[in-house]
Protein backbone atom coordinates (compact mmCIF):
# COMPACT_ATOMS: atom_id res chain seq x y z
CA UNK A 1 0.00 0.00 0.00
CA UNK A 2 1.61 3.22 -1.07
CA UNK A 3 -0.61 5.61 0.73
CA UNK A 4 -0.37 5.88 4.51
CA UNK A 5 -3.98 6.97 4.63
CA UNK A 6 -6.04 7.46 1.53
CA UNK A 7 -7.46 10.94 1.15
CA UNK A 8 -11.12 11.68 0.67
CA UNK A 9 -12.55 13.51 -2.33
CA UNK A 10 -15.64 14.17 -0.18
CA UNK A 11 -13.93 16.22 2.54
CA UNK A 12 -15.94 19.06 4.00
CA UNK A 13 -14.70 22.62 4.20
CA UNK A 14 -14.48 24.05 7.69
CA UNK A 15 -12.86 27.40 6.98
CA UNK A 16 -11.15 29.18 4.11
CA UNK A 17 -9.01 31.71 5.95
CA UNK A 18 -5.53 30.61 6.91
CA UNK A 19 -3.94 31.46 10.21
CA UNK A 20 -2.03 29.52 12.84
CA UNK A 21 -4.31 27.33 14.91
CA UNK A 22 -2.97 28.68 18.17
CA UNK A 23 -4.36 32.13 17.19
CA UNK A 24 -7.92 30.88 16.68
CA UNK A 25 -10.63 31.50 19.25
CA UNK A 26 -12.46 28.37 18.11
CA UNK A 27 -10.95 24.86 18.10
CA UNK A 28 -8.46 24.41 15.30
CA UNK A 29 -9.41 22.36 12.23
CA UNK A 30 -6.22 20.51 11.34
CA UNK A 31 -5.78 17.82 8.69
CA UNK A 32 -2.97 15.26 8.73
CA UNK A 33 -2.23 12.61 6.15
CA UNK A 34 0.80 10.73 4.93
CA UNK A 35 2.01 8.73 1.96
CA UNK A 36 4.77 6.16 1.74
CA UNK A 37 7.71 6.91 -0.59
CA UNK A 38 7.21 4.02 -2.97
CA UNK A 39 8.09 5.85 -6.17
CA UNK A 40 5.98 7.89 -8.55
CA UNK A 41 2.23 7.71 -7.76
CA UNK A 42 -0.16 5.98 -10.10
CA UNK A 43 -3.50 7.21 -11.40
CA UNK A 44 -5.40 5.61 -8.52
CA UNK A 45 -3.20 7.41 -5.96
CA UNK A 46 -3.78 10.71 -7.71
CA UNK A 47 -7.55 10.42 -8.08
CA UNK A 48 -8.14 8.70 -4.74
CA UNK A 49 -5.88 10.81 -2.55
CA UNK A 50 -3.55 13.43 -3.96
CA UNK A 51 -6.13 15.37 -5.92
CA UNK A 52 -8.05 15.84 -2.70
CA UNK A 53 -4.94 16.77 -0.74
CA UNK A 54 -4.74 19.79 -3.01
CA UNK A 55 -8.39 20.67 -2.35
CA UNK A 56 -7.98 20.32 1.42
CA UNK A 57 -5.36 23.09 1.40
CA UNK A 58 -8.20 25.53 0.72
CA UNK A 59 -10.71 23.94 3.09
CA UNK A 60 -8.85 23.85 6.42
CA UNK A 61 -6.69 26.42 8.22
CA UNK A 62 -3.92 23.92 9.00
CA UNK A 63 -2.83 21.01 6.82
CA UNK A 64 0.16 18.68 7.18
CA UNK A 65 1.29 16.10 4.65
CA UNK A 66 4.09 13.72 5.50
CA UNK A 67 6.25 11.43 3.38
CA UNK A 68 6.20 8.56 5.85
CA UNK A 69 9.54 6.85 5.38
CA UNK A 70 9.48 5.36 8.89
CA UNK A 71 6.45 3.35 7.82
CA UNK A 72 8.13 2.27 4.60
CA UNK A 73 10.90 0.31 6.34
CA UNK A 74 8.42 -2.23 7.70
CA UNK A 75 9.33 -3.82 4.36
CA UNK A 76 12.99 -4.23 3.24
CA UNK A 77 14.29 -1.08 1.54
CA UNK A 78 17.48 -0.33 -0.37
CA UNK A 79 18.87 2.84 1.28
CA UNK A 80 19.85 4.51 -1.99
CA UNK A 81 16.50 3.70 -3.55
CA UNK A 82 14.66 4.94 -0.47
CA UNK A 83 16.42 8.32 -0.58
CA UNK A 84 15.56 8.62 -4.27
CA UNK A 85 11.94 7.63 -3.64
CA UNK A 86 11.55 10.31 -0.97
CA UNK A 87 12.69 12.95 -3.47
CA UNK A 88 10.45 11.48 -6.18
CA UNK A 89 7.46 11.59 -3.86
CA UNK A 90 8.20 15.18 -2.89
CA UNK A 91 8.40 16.12 -6.58
CA UNK A 92 5.19 14.20 -7.30
CA UNK A 93 3.24 15.93 -4.54
CA UNK A 94 4.38 19.37 -5.65
CA UNK A 95 3.62 18.55 -9.28
CA UNK A 96 0.11 17.43 -8.32
CA UNK A 97 -0.49 20.80 -6.68
CA UNK A 98 0.48 20.51 -3.01
CA UNK A 99 1.57 24.04 -2.09
CA UNK A 100 4.25 24.26 0.65
CA UNK A 101 3.01 27.77 1.41
CA UNK A 102 -0.42 26.42 2.36
CA UNK A 103 0.46 22.94 3.63
CA UNK A 104 3.35 21.65 5.73
CA UNK A 105 5.11 19.05 3.55
CA UNK A 106 7.82 17.12 5.37
CA UNK A 107 9.76 13.86 5.71
CA UNK A 108 8.52 11.89 8.71
CA UNK A 109 11.88 10.48 9.86
CA UNK A 110 13.32 13.99 10.22
CA UNK A 111 10.84 14.81 13.00
CA UNK A 112 11.98 12.50 15.80
CA UNK A 113 8.94 13.32 17.91
CA UNK A 114 6.92 10.84 15.82
CA UNK A 115 8.95 7.88 17.05
CA UNK A 116 9.11 9.17 20.63
CA UNK A 117 5.35 9.60 20.91
CA UNK A 118 4.84 6.22 19.23
CA UNK A 119 6.75 4.51 22.05
CA UNK A 120 4.61 6.19 24.71
CA UNK A 121 1.37 5.32 22.90
CA UNK A 122 2.61 1.78 22.36
CA UNK A 123 2.81 1.39 26.13
CA UNK A 124 -0.92 2.20 26.26
CA UNK A 125 -1.85 -0.33 23.56
CA UNK A 126 -2.60 -4.03 24.10
CA UNK A 127 -1.23 -6.74 21.85
CA UNK A 128 -4.67 -8.23 21.08
CA UNK A 129 -5.82 -4.78 19.92
CA UNK A 130 -3.06 -4.69 17.29
CA UNK A 131 -3.33 -8.34 16.31
CA UNK A 132 -6.77 -7.85 14.77
CA UNK A 133 -5.99 -4.76 12.70
CA UNK A 134 -6.06 -5.23 8.90
CA UNK A 135 -2.46 -4.18 8.21
CA UNK A 136 -1.02 -6.97 10.36
CA UNK A 137 -3.56 -9.59 9.31
CA UNK A 138 -3.03 -8.94 5.60
CA UNK A 139 0.76 -8.54 5.38
CA UNK A 140 1.75 -11.11 7.99
CA UNK A 141 -0.45 -13.66 6.21
CA UNK A 142 1.33 -12.98 2.93
CA UNK A 143 4.75 -13.51 4.53
CA UNK A 144 3.66 -16.09 7.14
CA UNK A 145 5.33 -13.79 9.65
CA UNK A 146 5.94 -10.10 10.20
CA UNK A 147 8.32 -7.71 11.89
CA UNK A 148 7.70 -5.93 15.18
CA UNK A 149 7.60 -2.73 13.11
CA UNK A 150 4.78 -4.07 10.98
CA UNK A 151 2.91 -5.18 14.10
CA UNK A 152 3.16 -1.74 15.73
CA UNK A 153 2.68 0.17 12.45
CA UNK A 154 -0.81 1.41 13.50
CA UNK A 155 0.59 2.84 16.75
CA UNK A 156 3.03 4.95 14.75
CA UNK A 157 0.11 6.03 12.57
CA UNK A 158 -1.72 7.12 15.71
CA UNK A 159 1.35 9.04 16.84
CA UNK A 160 1.57 10.74 13.44
CA UNK A 161 -1.99 12.00 13.87
CA UNK A 162 -2.04 12.87 17.56
CA UNK A 163 1.36 14.58 17.60
CA UNK A 164 -0.17 17.54 15.76
CA UNK A 165 -3.51 17.40 17.60
CA UNK A 166 -5.09 16.65 14.23
CA UNK A 167 -8.87 16.92 14.06
CA UNK A 168 -9.46 15.36 10.64
CA UNK A 169 -7.79 12.52 8.75
CA UNK A 170 -8.61 11.58 5.14
CA UNK A 171 -9.05 7.81 5.01
CA UNK A 172 -10.33 5.07 2.78
CA UNK A 173 -12.57 2.35 4.17
CA UNK A 174 -9.59 -0.01 4.54
CA UNK A 175 -7.97 2.38 7.03
CA UNK A 176 -10.94 3.18 9.26
CA UNK A 177 -9.90 0.63 11.91
CA UNK A 178 -6.46 2.19 12.14
CA UNK A 179 -8.00 5.61 12.69
CA UNK A 180 -10.21 4.10 15.37
CA UNK A 181 -7.04 3.05 17.19
CA UNK A 182 -5.86 6.67 17.13
CA UNK A 183 -9.23 7.73 18.56
CA UNK A 184 -8.99 5.06 21.27
CA UNK A 185 -5.46 6.09 22.20
CA UNK A 186 -6.51 9.74 22.44
CA UNK A 187 -9.26 8.72 24.89
CA UNK A 188 -6.96 6.42 26.89
CA UNK A 189 -4.27 9.09 27.21
CA UNK A 190 -6.78 11.81 28.09
CA UNK A 191 -8.46 9.64 30.72
CA UNK A 192 -5.17 8.72 32.34
CA UNK A 193 -3.24 11.99 32.11
CA UNK A 194 -5.85 14.69 31.49
CA UNK A 195 -7.33 16.12 28.29
CA UNK A 196 -4.70 16.84 25.66
CA UNK A 197 -5.57 15.19 22.36
CA UNK A 198 -8.71 15.77 20.27
CA UNK A 199 -10.30 12.61 18.88
CA UNK A 200 -9.59 12.82 15.14
CA UNK A 201 -12.52 12.42 12.77
CA UNK A 202 -12.47 10.55 9.49
CA UNK A 203 -12.92 12.25 6.15
CA UNK A 204 -14.25 9.25 4.25
CA UNK A 205 -13.81 8.81 0.54
CA UNK A 206 -16.99 8.82 -1.53
CA UNK A 207 -15.46 7.86 -4.88
CA UNK A 208 -15.05 4.49 -6.52
CA UNK A 209 -11.54 3.04 -6.29
CA UNK A 210 -9.57 2.90 -9.53
CA UNK A 211 -9.07 -0.75 -10.47
CA UNK A 212 -6.33 -2.58 -12.31
CA UNK A 213 -6.68 -2.27 -16.07
CA UNK A 214 -5.87 -5.97 -16.42
CA UNK A 215 -7.85 -7.30 -13.45
CA UNK A 216 -10.76 -5.04 -12.49
CA UNK A 217 -11.42 -7.12 -9.37
CA UNK A 218 -8.20 -5.70 -7.84
CA UNK A 219 -7.08 -2.17 -7.04
CA UNK A 220 -4.60 -0.44 -9.32
CA UNK A 221 -1.17 -0.97 -7.76
CA UNK A 222 2.45 -0.06 -8.44
CA UNK A 223 3.47 -3.55 -7.34
CA UNK A 224 1.34 -5.23 -10.01
CA UNK A 225 3.65 -7.43 -12.12
CA UNK A 226 1.60 -6.68 -15.24
CA UNK A 227 2.97 -3.44 -16.70
CA UNK A 228 -0.26 -2.85 -18.63
CA UNK A 229 -2.30 -2.84 -15.41
CA UNK A 230 -1.20 0.50 -13.96
CA UNK A 231 -0.98 4.06 -15.27
CA UNK A 232 1.58 6.26 -13.53
CA UNK A 233 1.43 10.05 -13.53
CA UNK A 234 4.62 10.14 -15.62
CA UNK A 235 3.43 7.82 -18.39
CA UNK A 236 3.66 9.23 -21.89
CA UNK A 237 0.56 9.84 -23.98
CA UNK A 238 1.41 6.78 -26.09
CA UNK A 239 1.84 4.57 -23.03
CA UNK A 240 -1.47 5.75 -21.56
CA UNK A 241 -3.29 5.12 -24.84
CA UNK A 242 -1.75 1.63 -25.13
CA UNK A 243 -2.64 0.63 -21.57
CA UNK A 244 -6.23 1.81 -21.88
CA UNK A 245 -6.60 0.23 -25.31
CA UNK A 246 -5.56 -3.10 -23.78
CA UNK A 247 -7.74 -2.70 -20.69
CA UNK A 248 -9.92 -5.71 -19.92
CA UNK A 249 -13.59 -5.16 -20.78
CA UNK A 250 -16.13 -7.71 -22.08
CA UNK A 251 -17.98 -8.76 -25.22
CA UNK A 252 -20.76 -6.16 -24.99
CA UNK A 253 -20.03 -3.13 -27.15
CA UNK A 254 -22.37 -0.66 -25.41
CA UNK A 255 -20.87 1.40 -22.57
CA UNK A 256 -22.77 1.11 -19.29
CA UNK A 257 -21.88 1.49 -15.63
CA UNK A 258 -22.46 -1.70 -13.65
CA UNK A 259 -19.47 -2.56 -11.44
CA UNK A 260 -20.94 -5.93 -10.41
CA UNK A 261 -21.58 -7.43 -13.84
CA UNK A 262 -19.31 -5.24 -16.02
CA UNK A 263 -16.31 -4.34 -13.83
CA UNK A 264 -13.88 -3.63 -16.67
CA UNK A 265 -16.03 -1.14 -18.55
CA UNK A 266 -17.23 0.37 -15.27
CA UNK A 267 -13.62 0.97 -14.24
CA UNK A 268 -13.07 2.95 -17.44
CA UNK A 269 -16.22 4.98 -16.72
CA UNK A 270 -14.95 5.67 -13.19
CA UNK A 271 -11.60 6.85 -14.55
CA UNK A 272 -13.23 8.99 -17.25
CA UNK A 273 -15.60 10.66 -14.78
CA UNK A 274 -12.80 11.35 -12.30
CA UNK A 275 -10.25 12.82 -14.70
CA UNK A 276 -12.88 14.84 -16.59
CA UNK A 277 -14.44 15.95 -13.28
CA UNK A 278 -17.93 14.93 -14.34
CA UNK A 279 -20.47 12.52 -12.90
CA UNK A 280 -20.59 8.86 -13.83
CA UNK A 281 -23.93 9.52 -15.51
CA UNK A 282 -22.39 12.27 -17.64
CA UNK A 283 -19.52 9.98 -18.61
CA UNK A 284 -21.97 7.29 -19.76
CA UNK A 285 -23.93 9.95 -21.67
CA UNK A 286 -20.75 11.02 -23.50
CA UNK A 287 -20.19 7.37 -24.47
CA UNK A 288 -23.51 7.10 -26.33
CA UNK A 289 -23.00 5.92 -29.86
CA UNK A 290 -19.51 4.58 -29.10
CA UNK A 291 -18.48 0.97 -28.77
CA UNK A 292 -15.93 0.08 -26.09
CA UNK A 293 -13.06 0.56 -28.54
CA UNK A 294 -14.18 4.11 -29.34
CA UNK A 295 -14.83 4.81 -25.69
CA UNK A 296 -11.31 3.72 -24.74
CA UNK A 297 -9.99 6.42 -27.09
CA UNK A 298 -12.21 9.01 -25.36
CA UNK A 299 -10.98 7.88 -21.92
CA UNK A 300 -7.31 7.85 -22.89
CA UNK A 301 -7.59 11.38 -24.33
CA UNK A 302 -9.13 12.59 -21.07
CA UNK A 303 -6.43 10.92 -18.97
CA UNK A 304 -3.64 12.32 -21.16
CA UNK A 305 -5.11 15.82 -20.92
CA UNK A 306 -5.22 15.56 -17.12
CA UNK A 307 -1.84 13.93 -16.48
CA UNK A 308 0.42 15.56 -19.07
CA UNK A 309 0.89 18.88 -17.21
CA UNK A 310 1.57 16.98 -13.98
CA UNK A 311 4.16 14.76 -15.62
CA UNK A 312 5.90 17.71 -17.22
CA UNK A 313 6.05 19.60 -13.92
CA UNK A 314 7.34 16.51 -12.13
CA UNK A 315 10.21 16.18 -14.61
CA UNK A 316 11.07 19.85 -14.10
CA UNK A 317 11.12 19.43 -10.32
CA UNK A 318 13.24 16.29 -10.55
CA UNK A 319 15.91 18.34 -12.29
CA UNK A 320 16.19 20.64 -9.27
CA UNK A 321 16.92 18.39 -6.26
CA UNK A 322 18.23 21.35 -4.24
CA UNK A 323 14.78 22.93 -4.40
CA UNK A 324 13.11 19.70 -3.28
CA UNK A 325 15.50 19.36 -0.36
CA UNK A 326 14.85 22.96 0.67
CA UNK A 327 11.05 22.42 0.56
CA UNK A 328 11.37 19.36 2.80
CA UNK A 329 13.78 21.14 5.14
CA UNK A 330 11.40 24.06 5.57
CA UNK A 331 8.52 21.64 6.11
CA UNK A 332 10.51 19.76 8.74
CA UNK A 333 11.16 23.00 10.63
CA UNK A 334 7.48 23.93 10.58
CA UNK A 335 6.43 20.44 11.62
CA UNK A 336 8.85 20.40 14.56
CA UNK A 337 7.57 23.79 15.70
CA UNK A 338 4.18 22.15 16.09
CA UNK A 339 5.35 18.75 17.34
CA UNK A 340 7.97 19.70 19.94
CA UNK A 341 5.66 21.48 22.42
CA UNK A 342 3.09 18.69 22.20
CA UNK A 343 5.71 16.04 22.96
CA UNK A 344 7.07 18.13 25.84
CA UNK A 345 3.57 18.31 27.31
CA UNK A 346 3.17 14.54 26.89
CA UNK A 347 6.52 13.92 28.59
CA UNK A 348 5.57 16.19 31.47
CA UNK A 349 2.22 14.49 32.00
CA UNK A 350 3.70 11.02 31.81
CA UNK A 351 6.35 11.98 34.37
CA UNK A 352 9.52 12.13 32.28
CA UNK A 353 10.18 15.72 33.26
Automatic annotation (TrEMBL):
Similarity comment: Belongs to the class-I aminoacyl-tRNA synthetase family.
PANTHER family from the UniProt entry: TRYPTOPHAN--TRNA LIGASE, MITOCHONDRIAL
Gene Ontology molecular function, alphabetical: ATP binding; tryptophan-tRNA ligase activity
Protein location: Mitochondrion matrix
Organism of provenance: Betta splendens (Siamese fighting fish)
Function per UniProt: Catalyzes the attachment of tryptophan to tRNA(Trp) in a two-step reaction: tryptophan is first activated by ATP to form Trp-AMP and then transferred to the acceptor end of tRNA(Trp).
CDD domains: TrpRS_core
GO CC term, one of those recorded: mitochondrial matrix
Signal peptide segment: none
SUPFAM superfamilies reported for this sequence: Nucleotidylyl transferase (SSF52374)
Taxonomy of the source species: Eukaryota, Metazoa, Chordata, Craniata, Vertebrata
Name the record gives this protein: Tryptophan--tRNA ligase, mitochondrial
EC number: 6.1.1.2
Gene name of this polypeptide: wars2
GO biological process annotation, one example: mitochondrial tryptophanyl-tRNA aminoacylation
Short name of one Pfam family: tRNA-synt_1b
Enzyme class: ligase
Source species, domain of life: Eukaryota
Keywords: Aminoacyl-tRNA synthetase, ATP-binding, Ligase, Nucleotide-binding, Protein biosynthesis
Catalyzed reactions: tRNA(Trp) + L-tryptophan + ATP = L-tryptophyl-tRNA(Trp) + AMP + diphosphate + H(+)
PROSITE patterns recorded: AA_TRNA_LIGASE_I
Amino acid sequence: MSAWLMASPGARAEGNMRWPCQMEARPCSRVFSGIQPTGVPHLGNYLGALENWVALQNQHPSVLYSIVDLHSITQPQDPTRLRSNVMDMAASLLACGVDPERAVLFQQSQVSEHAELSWILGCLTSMPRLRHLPQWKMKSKLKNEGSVGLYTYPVLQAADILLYKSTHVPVGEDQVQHLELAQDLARIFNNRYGDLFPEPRALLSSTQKVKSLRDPSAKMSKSDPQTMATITITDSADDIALKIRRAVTDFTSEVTFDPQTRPGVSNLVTIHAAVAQITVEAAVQQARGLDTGGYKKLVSDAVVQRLTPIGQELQRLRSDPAHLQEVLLQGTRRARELAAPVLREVQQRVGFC
